[in-house]
Specification:
Elements: H1 2-15, H2 18-31, H3 39-50, E1 52-59, H4 66-74, H5 87-91, E2 98-106, E3 109-117, H6 132-150, E4 164-169, H7 178-187, E5 193-197, H8 205-221, H9 238-250, E6 253-254, E7 261-264, E8 267-274, E9 277-280, H10 289-299, H11 301-329, H12 348-399
Parallel strand pairs: 1-3, 1-4, 4-5, 5-6
Antiparallel strand pairs: 2-3, 7-8, 8-9
């Protein structure tokens, strides 16, 4: 019977439509499928729903095209209400910290972009310590995040830490100026610094190559740690590896920005029109703008945030904890400054819980005192009874027995 059933089953299988056969094969596969392979999709959906945030700082002297480059990078005008200062006002201007936040959405993905501008940097005659307000701002964002992270309500922590700093270097010098070296050395342990050669259309290609080599040499000479691109994984495709090699070879990026659209060869492009021709912002033969945009937004934005969190912030956090621990272990009689980061004050719910615990502790102590008093009273009572019994025996021995002993026979 079994030998006859087997050919019949094969015949039925052959008569079934290809669609039915495919459905049967899918059912067999489903029986062996657990489902944890969908975890990346779950993370993706949650991340897209939550949105992303990124804080970018731009620094450099005035007139190097910082605002224009930001507009070209994100196609968003963040400086609509900006007031241009006159020459006399710039003389007395000090370094300021200005924040511009905008919500950008592209193909359903939301990005909260914060641009931290530093107007007035490097514009004074004496620029010594002109980077101090900027380093203070970076430390304040670390401190605020540390306070929020150490608090009780950690659900909605706002991350205002600076994830990247684009530092604009003037193309008119012969390398780094003292203010450039001072700024980058003051911030290279706190922020991911990406140096840029501004207004690259002022130089010919040979001059750009020489300036890049000179800046790389001086960065190594002064021990400045700029942002290092991570190494590619072995399983990455060749196109990505080639793109990564080009990024590393192009740093520091020579960039051009433009807010205007011009017509070149029958096409409308973003660029600058000169009597001798047109400079296209997104033409890789003219500048490194496309490479900078790809690095900053398309390939390395998440790595910039990871390095900020895992390296720069962790160094700050470890330093603060070490300072707080050393201050707590000092002799209380010594005059010492208040710790930089005191523990956060408890909220109303915590204070209520502390009061309840204090009341429970007070009742427990009161009960222990009552029990101790009862033990003392019982011990005193036993001693009084023993003393009374001894006194009674003593009187009995003095007065003689109350009942006469029987006569002996």
């Amino acid at each position: 019977m079994d030998s006859l059933a087997a050919p019949q089953d094969r015949l039925v299988e052959q008569l079934l439509s290809p669609r039915t056969q495919a459905q049967r094969r899918l059912k067999d596969i489903d029986k062996q499928y657990v489902g944890f392979a969908t975890l990346p999709n779950q993370v993706h959906r949650k991340s897209v729903k939550k949105g992303f945030d990124f804080t970018l700082m731009v620094a450099g002297e005035s007139g190097l095209g910082k605002s224009t480059l930001v507009h070209s990078l994100f196609l968003t005008d963040l400086y609509k209400d900006r007031k241009l200062l006159s020459a006399e006002e710039r003389i007395n201007q000090t370094v300021e910290i200005l924040k511009h936040t905008v919500d950008i959405e592209e193909k359903g993905v939301k990005l909260k972009l914060t641009i931290v501008d530093t107007p007035g940097f490097g514009d004074a005659v004496n620029n010594s310590e002109c980077w101090k307000p900027i380093t203070d701002y970076v430390d304040q964002q670390f401190e605020q995040y540390f306070r929020d992270e150490s608090g009780l309500n950690r659900k909605n922590i706002q991350d205002n830490r600076v994830h990247c700093c684009l530092y604009f270097i003037s193309p008119f010098g012969h390398g780094l100026r003292p203010v450039d070296v001072g700024f980058m050395k003051a911030l290279h342990e706190k922020v991911n610094i990406v140096p840029l050669i501004a207004k690259a259309d002022c130089l010919v290609p040979s001059e750009i190559r020489k300036l890049k080599d000179r800046i790389r040499e001086e960065i190594d000479k002064f021990g400045i740690h700029v942002y290092q691109f991570p190494e590619c994984d072995s399983d990455e495709d060749e196109d990505f590896k080639q793109q990564d090699r080009e990024l590393k070879e192009s740093a520091p990026f020579a960039v051009i920005g433009s807010n205007t659209v011009v017509e070149a060869k029958g096409q409308r492009v973003r660029g600058r029109l000169y009597p001798w021709g047109i400079v296209e912002v997104e033409n890789q033969a003219h500048c490194d703008f496309v490479k900078l945009r790809n690095m900053l937004i398309r390939t390395h934005m998440h790595d910039l945030k990871d390095v900020t969190c895992d390296v720069h912030y962790e160094n700050y956090r470890a330093h603060c904890i070490q300072q707080m621990t050393s201050k707590l272990t000092q002799d209380s009689r010594m005059e010492s400054p208040i710790p930089i980061l005191p523990l956060p004050t408890p909220d109303a719910e915590t204070e209520k819980l502390i009061r309840m615990k204090d009341e429970e502790l007070a009742l427990l102590v009161l009960g222990l005192l009552h029990a101790l008093l009862l033990v003392l009273l019982l011990g005193r009572l036993r001693r009084l009874r023993a003393h009374a019994r001894d006194w009674a025996f003593h009187e009995l021995s003095l007065t003689g027995p109350l009942v006469a002993e029987p006569d002996a026979y």
